[in-house]
Amino acid sequence: MLIADSLQSLFQEINQARDEQDLRSRVIISLGKHFAAKRCGLFFFDQFPQAAPNSNLAKLALSIEHNPVLRYVVERHAVIHEASLLPPEVWEKLCSRTDHAHVMAGPIVSNGQLVGGLGFTRTRHQPTFNDQNLADLSALCLHVSTWLAMMRSPAIKFNPLNIDRLTPREIQIAQLVAQGLTNAQIGSTLWITENSVKQALKRIFRKIEVSSRAEMVARLSLTTAF
After folding, report:
1. Hey, which residues does 120 pair with through a beta bridge?
2. What is the mean pLDDT of residues 197-211?
3. 104 to 12, 29, 211: CA distances (angstroms)
4. What does residue 210 show for φ and ψ, rounded to 5 degrees?
5. pLDDT at residue number 178
6. Average pLDDT of 131-146?
7. CB atoms within 10 A of CB 99
8. Fold of the domain spanning 3-152
9. Residue 175: is it exposed, middle or buried by C-beta count within 10 angstroms (0-12/13-18/19+)?
10. pLDDT per residue as tens digits for the range 104-113
């Protein structure tokens, strides 16, 4: 499979997730394979305390004073790997774990705030992450951030009795229609073509037996919360 095809597949898996647990179960293995990572993690800060390890090593890894990779992500909201910041011998002194010899991390952002992250590690016997890996992770972080913003948005509420026939992607599109976005804007938000949005709307209209965007919003009982 080509790298571009692999990325598109990951984008689809992200956008089809129904909730944060589903997102993690859908993509974590695929992400690890895509980056040939020994370990990979997807986490949100508001869920982290319950799952946070208690070891001193883990506390150091999660300290922005000790961990320059984490500090870079927190301060800049940008992707990074350890080789971009430090010589190998310096990183090895900071992190002696053989399965964390190479580390790459990226931000999950919502409303201008850092709310989580994606992280990957490789062993000493594997090559360091490279610029292509950083570019791929940047795109994936953007998709996860967009997905999270839509999932956590309080602006749109559905009557669950009226959406059983719609796929997760169709629900996303219906939400954005209800927010007043055009087909072009929806396509840009979801990283799909404008024609894909049009075709999805046709399917939605057919499934719920409506003939217009306004009728669709009314039929699905979407309401704006002020």
Report:
1. 40, 104
2. 91
3. 22, 16, 48
4. -130, 170
5. 79
6. 91
7. 14
8. Beta-Lactamase (3.30.450)
9. buried
10. 999 998 877 8
Interatomic CA distance for residues 43 and 32, integer angstroms: 14
Across-strand partners of 110?
113
Domain spans of the chain, in order of start = 3-152, 156-224
Architecture of domain 156-224: Orthogonal Bundle (1.10)
Distance CA 106, CA 78 (A): 6
CA 6 from chain center: how many Å?
A: 15
Is residue 45 within 8 Å of residue 89, measured between CB atoms?
no
For strand 102-110 and strand 80-81, is the pairing parallel, antiparallel, or unpaired? antiparallel
Average pLDDT, the chain: 82
Tens digits of per-residue pLDDT, 16-27?
Answer: 887 888 888 889
pTM beyond 0.85, yes or no: no
Largest Cα–Cα distance of the chain, in whole Å? 65
For 3, 102, 161, the CA distances from 70, given in Å and listed in that order, are 27, 13, 43
pLDDT of residue 106: 96
User: CB burial class (10 A; 0-12, 13-18, 19+) of residue 197?
Assistant: buried
